[in-house]
Write a structure and sequence with these properties.
Layout lengths: L1 H8 L12 H13 L1 H16 L7 E5 L6 H4 L3 E5 L8 E2 L13 E7 L8 H11 E10 L5 H9 L34
Parallel strand pairs: 1-2, 1-4, 2-3, 4-5
Helix pairs in contact: 2-3
């Protein structure tokens, strides 16, 4: 039943595709660019993220760039993903070693990525090393509402347990299993 509902809710261009297939990510990129509502939503989110970047020295890293288009709005952004994919600058695991010198980044930006990280402690340790003093980790994350609890609890491919005492889970699906802090706040 769950699989049937997931299939019905899938976009026709990605229906039946494996979530871990890079071609699924490329198709999602196409959908984001072509659907006016989604493109506008992402442009707003990206504006918030870019506005959070401080004027300190260093590079800007986007984690989980996959289907996104942040680099179209700021060519300085280094795009990354946990797998090879067209349009990505680096393949990296942010729960492992980030390939940057200490304090080399002024910002780490991410959209809908943080909740996929199976080991947030490892992510924060490595990010704290790589982000310069005065730099930020800024993210846009899903909002937990009564409706989203149903979706995440029953239809999402990764664990969703609000009673969990620890934030660690087994890897699997959608890049989960590979990793990637001020939160951008939009006012407008």
């Amino acid at each position: 039943m769950t699989a049937m509902i997931r299939g019905m809710l899938s976009h026709p261009l990605t229906r039946g595709m494996d979530i871990d297939d890079p071609n699924t990510t490329l198709m999602r990129r196409r959908i984001l660019r072509e659907k006016p509502f989604l493109r506008k939503l992402y442009e707003e989110w990206y504006g918030c993220l870019l506005n959070s970047v401080p004027p300190v020295r260093g590079r800007i890293l986007e984690l989980g760039s996959g289907a996104g288009f942040l680099k179209d709005l700021n060519s300085e952004v280094i795009t990354s993903e946990v797998f090879e994919c067209d349009g990505i600058d680096m393949v990296l695991d942010a729960c492992g070693h980030l390939p940057f010198d200490d304090g080399a980044l002024r910002a780490i930006l991410m959209t809908d990525v943080f909740h996929h990280l199976p080991d947030v402690r490892a992510f924060f340790r490595e990010s704290a090393r790589a982000v310069a003093a005065g730099g930020v980790i800024s993210m846009i994350e899903p909002w937990v509402t009564p409706w989203s609890k149903v979706i995440y609890g029953r239809l999402h491919h990764e664990p969703f347990d609000l009673s969990a005492r620890e934030w660690e889970f087994k890897s699997g699906g959608g890049g989960g299993g590979r990793c990637q802090w001020q939160t951008a706040r939009c006012r407008g």
